[in-house]
Design brief:
8 strands, five-stranded mixed beta sheet, Rossmann fold, alpha/beta, three-stranded parallel beta sheet, about 290 residues, Si:dkey-174n20.1
Length: about 290
């Protein structure tokens, strides 16, 4: 269990007006937690039916009617741009942006020709955050929370082949390392502007990432997750902590696990690599 003072903090009501999240797994549990604390929640999802079901469940569990969904496919940069255009027209406030999508390593490609894992986990979030950054600054203090994973430590970035798609697990590790560098560089460029950034490892949770694989693999991994993983509700607590905690605000650019700052491998704290990845990502998504 978490420390008593953390649990008390996580029950605190918040006045943030808008946040983003997802339609299943850790994302849905975070949406429930934030909606129950008074936040207006907008989940972004590419599947309208799944999103509608998730909204109904989140409303029921959080006892809040202030939950909505909008269409977004992070595998399409065009969809990201359309989503941001629509959001900025309809919504006047944005205080919390949670970058939650976690595509596992699969041998597939996005509409824009990027490996699915790198394109969704990093580039989609990168473009989304940048297009919404002016609104985040307007609504400061605001926060950007990007989910990553401790498996980042097994790979380093190769700027000659950021799209690496040969070994799915290593592709996933690189995308999670990119999430960490992204969070750090975002904290650097928004320093003093009221926007803080956090990379969060939710732990190994019982999520639905296996839905992209074969039936037999899903059965095997369900057994493994049942034995060694934690429920999604537990995994969401560190995300909620970074969304509402005053203490977390002191650690912009930090890496969090178990509701507290955690240490990173030295190569994952390289500011030069973080800046280089940011500039490369700007070129890849054609961000002026």
């Amino acid at each position: 269990g978490y420390k008593e003072e953390y649990c008390a903090l996580l029950r605190r009501k918040i006045n943030m007006k808008y946040t983003f999240w997802g339609n299943s797994g850790t994302g849905k549990e975070t949406a429930v937690a934030l909606a129950a604390r008074g936040a207006r929640v907008i989940i972004a999802c590419r599947d309208h039916e799944k999103a509608a079901r998730a909204v109904r469940e989140i409303k029921l569990r959080s006892r809040s009617f202030n939950v909505f969904h909008m269409e977004l496919d992070l595998a399409s940069l065009h969809s990201v741009r359309e989503f941001c255009k629509k959001f900025l027209q309809q919504e006047k406030s944005l205080h919390i942006l949670v970058n939650n999508a976690g595509m596992p390593g699969v041998l597939d490609w996005t509409n824009d020709g990027f490996s699915m894992c790198f394109g969704v986990n990093h580039l989609g979030h990168f473009l989304l955050t940048n297009l919404l950054l002016p609104r985040l600054k307007e609504c400061a203090p605001s926060r950007v929370i990007t989910l990553t994973c401790s498996c980042y430590k097994y790979q380093k970035l190769d700027f000659q082949d950021l799209n690496y798609n040969l070994l799915p697990f290593f592709t996933y590790c690189r995308s999670k390392l990119a999430n960490i560098y992204f969070s750090q560089e975002l904290a650097r460029i928004t320093e003093g502007k009221g926007v803080t950034s956090y990379a969060v490892h939710p732990g190994f949770v019982q999520s639905r990432w296996t839905c992209h694989y074969s039936f037999l693999f899903r059965i095997l991994m369900q057994v493994v997750m049942w034995m060694f993983s934690v429920p999604c509700e537990i995994g969401a607590q560190t995300v909620v902590y970074c969304a509402v905690s005053n203490e977390a605000a002191k650690h912009s650019g930090g890496y969090f696990a178990d509701c507290q700052p955690a240490a990173l491998r030295p190569f994952a704290r390289d500011a030069g690599v973080a800046k280089k990845l940011w500039e490369a990502s700007e070129r890849l998504v054609k961000l002026a």
